[in-house]
Structures are given as structure tokens and as C-alpha cells.
User: Fold this.
Amino acid sequence: MKSGSLFWAVVLILVGVVLLLGNLGVVAVTWGLIWPLVLIAFGIWILWGGLFAPSSVEVVEDSIPLQGATSARVRINHGAGRLRIGAGALTGDLVSGAFGGGLDKRILHDGDRLDVRMRVPDHGFPFAPWHWARGAFDWTVSFNREVALELRLETGASANHLDLRELRVTDLRLQTGASATVLRLPATAGQTRARIEAGAASVEIHVPDGVAARIRTQAGLAAIKVDTSRFPRTGGEYRSPDYGTAANCVDLEIEAGVGSVEVK
Assistant:
């Protein structure tokens, strides 16, 4: 069994045992216990990784040239570790960065558009806890500020810091599992569509000052908190008063399972 599957199996067993004890009347169970149990299991997973992690890891510095492109679709599959995304690539590059554990990339050039896929090379057990604990898959990725971007991000047991404020991200899709994510949305990208799908995760979303937003949410056991002083609730959604007229706005959809999501 892969270690990622093993982790989720342990989580499900713990949750199932607690619910069974509750049904039998042995302990008093509320749904508020479930999220702490997930965090405890995740903490044990990371602690195990800290005890058995390898002493060193390869860090590869790499870049992807623009080749005359003015827009790009980029898919990043980063299963475990730490992922940092921001602005700062050189004028002639779409993206540059330092990639702990290496970089497996595929690049297709179609006229003035690049289609790029980036992933961690196969290390046998990509969700092993030592990767997360020692930063074996620690990626720092910088994008070009001038290029229109569609980003597709898939992360697993990870810590993500996604600073898109200076980037022209017009479409964002984030799928994240047992993770902690801080997301700062674009400040001057015009209209941005964003969809967040979070599992057992903590997600903190920052909408820059001057950016209007429409926010729709769907939650299982997750707690979702939205700053209603900026985004008043209207019917089944949250919306800035100037959403229809603002030069910069974001259409945000959030689907969360277990955990917490906060929009500021």
C-alpha cells in the first residue's frame, strides 16, 4: 500500500472507531471532534517523517522560456511537501524556481500560448511523511508578471503559500488534500475565476483591497468564514457591492470537506 493511502486509511479508522464508540454510548461524540482527530493523525504522520527522514535531498534549479508566448496554461502536481508560488521570473521566462526532489516537465507550444505540466518525479512513495517533514519536495516557483495565466494546482499533504497578487491569473483551480494553504488572489488581473476544492484542509484566502468578489460556498463538515463587512451575504452567495462595476474582480467558488476556510 502506498503511504498516502495508508495515511487516509488510518484517518478513516480513527474516525470510524470514535463514531462507533459514540453510537454504543461509550463516549459522547460531536462532529466537532472529527477535525481534531484528523489533525492529530496528520501530526503523527509528520512526526514519523521527522524521525525517519533522509538527511539530504536534491534541489534542482530550472526555468521554462516563454518562446514568444503571451499566455500560458500551467498544471502543477505537487503531492507532498511545501509549495510557494509568486512573481519574479525574468522577462524571457514563463517560470523559474528551485525544485526540491527535482522537476518533471512537459511543454507544448501552440502559437502564442504555452501548455505546461510540472510535477515531482516519481520517488516511489511521494506521500511518505519524511517528504513533508524535511521539505524533500520543497518548491519555490516564480512566474512572469506580464503573462496571462491559467493555473491548475493539485496538492496533497502539503503547506502551500500561493501569492498571486502581482500575477495576471485569469483562471485558477486549486485541489488540495490534507494541507494548510494561504492564498492571496490577484490584485490587477481584471476578471479572475477561481475554484477551490479542499479536503481535510485549512485554507486562508485573501482578496486584495480594491478587488471585488462574488463568493459561493459548499461545505460538508468544514467551517467556512467570510468577511461580511467586505462581502455581504446576498441570497445564497457573498458579493461586494461594486462587483458588477469593479475593474478587478474575482468569481470564487469554494467546496470544502473537513477543515476550515476563511475569506478575508
